[in-house]
Amino acid sequence: MAVLKTKLGTTYYLKKGKRGETPIVGAHGGPGGTHLSIKPLLELATDRQVVVYDQIGSGRSSDIDQSKWTIETFCQNLDELLNHLGFEEVILYGSSWGGTLILEYYKRNPKRVKGLMFHSSLICSKHWVEDAKRLISKLPKKTQEIIHCCEKVGATDSKVYKEAIDTYYKRHVCRDLKAYEKKKKSKARFNEKLYLYMWGPSEFCPTGTLKKYNGQSILKKIKVPTLFFSGQYDEATPESAKVFASRVKGSTFKVIKGCSHSSFRENKELTKKIISDFLAKSFK
Q1: pLDDT per residue over 223-237, tens digit each?
Q2: Do 49 and 63 belong together in one domain?
Q3: Which of 30, 66, 115, 141 is deepest in the core (most CB within 10 A)?
Q4: Does residue 47 lie in a domain region?
């Protein structure tokens, strides 16, 4: 793993492949996650360089002060990484919150970005919450009641709420139970405080700074090949992804069959194929 040191701090990244076609840089989810969730992206480094990294403030990268837990900081972090790598042009991939990040980066640096791949991405918090409510309504009645009651009284750190979270996550975040349990036990440095500050106590309860995030106005300004893809059972639902795709002229929309939010863990080969097919079609 290589390092980049700037005034923000130290950013750890992994690079694979030789220079050739336009490189890909992948942004992981969270906020507060790590590159491990998108590490299989490196396997696409057959005719181009591919890079994944731990965003500043999480993983093996430096901690940063809470005052810097902003979209602007993470865009700056990504920009400094691209400069360090010498990538004048790049294809950006974003998973979950990583999709928010690359959308915001494109808004600030449209000429540098030659392609965008939104994998189960947060584009609009209102859509995300509405989808979550619909998915929660299909959970066992007792689980629904626990979620609603705990959120109403602010008991989101309670044992019963965390058990209800598990029920939802095993349906819509990672349906591969072995992979799910492995992830829960992982010692990867997930920054829970950063996640809580920017998002909230659970995937379906935004209370942080992204609570009212809406990047839909940026979509119509996208002028590069763009892929939107979500799992069949994803919390970032295919229905919403299709709506977002319809707002980007000429974009590609795909559903990852049999998967939820963690398709790299659930069906790595299918996920890679969707990305490879998009690259082959859009960047000949």
Answers
A1: 999 999 999 999 999
A2: yes
A3: 30
A4: yes
